[in-house]
Amino acid sequence: MAERPYIVGNWKMNGTRAMLAQARAIDRAAQNLMKVEVALAPPFTLVHATHREVEQIGVGAQDCHPADDGAHTGDISATMAADAGAKFVILGHSERRQNHGETDALVRAKAQAALAAGLRVIMCCGETEEVRDAGKAVEHVLAQLRASLPESLDRPGEMLTVAYEPVWAIGTGRTPTAEDIGAMHREIRALLVELFGEEDGAAVRILYGGSVKAENARELLAADEVGGALVGGASLTAESFMGIVIAA
Ligand code: PEP
EC no. (predicted)? Predict the structure, then answer.
């Protein structure tokens, strides 16, 4: 990995204010590990409080609405997330695509709104087990990315991160081999270069996500073109999350 590895914790729908102690502990530990860029995406209810509690780590949101404001009960706009202290937003996560019926077009509209609000975007993509078994994983992931990424993007290396998360690896304890991850990341890199040009396409970080834990982090992060990890379950305690950060 050429740059500082980027390790992002996605707390999903976990955490009340009691979890801020974990955020503080992660932040303190990250101050001694400056070779790794560390970030957390708590649920919306904790974004502002986390932002106020931490000094070193990045804080982001897990979703945003494509509109800036209006009659959208229960939704949060990118501007509101930024106002609460978010610096980035995770978009296109398979749990939102599956559980909320988010289409590529909607994910793209959200990405455009996020960028307009000054948020960096972590764009998730990944194939189901059926798609992988059918030998169509690369085709599926590239098509998903092509249709979900914003059509134009200033400073892609700074504003965009891609997270490859095979759906069958999320929360299951199963992971692809480092070779399979490297093969997919090389395909994603080629697409980014095609879309954004040689220099900008090469500057976008590509994270791996799916059952990353301290025990497998070193091997998974050493795979070709892996610039860090998006971590779900193992980001919920400072101890397990920092185990991954240390391995990175
Ligand atoms: C995720 O959902 O982004 C994720 C990677 O989850 P887990 O680490 O729990 O597999």
Answer: 5.3.1.1
- Domain extent listing, the chain: 1-94+108-115+225-248
Residues with CB under 6 A from ligand 1: 10, 165, 170-171, 209-212, 230-234
Q: Is 1-94+108-115+225-248 a domain of CATH 3.20.20.70?
A: yes
Q: Look at ligand 1, atom 8, and give the residue with the nearest C-alpha.
A: 232
Q: Cα dist. 24→52, 53, 68 in Å? A: 10, 6, 31
Checking ipTM against 0.90, whether it exceeds it is yes
Give per-residue pLDDT as tens, 72-123.
999 999 999 999 999 999 999 999 999 999 999 999 999 999 999 999 999 9
Residues of each annotated binding site:
10-12, 171, 211, 232-233
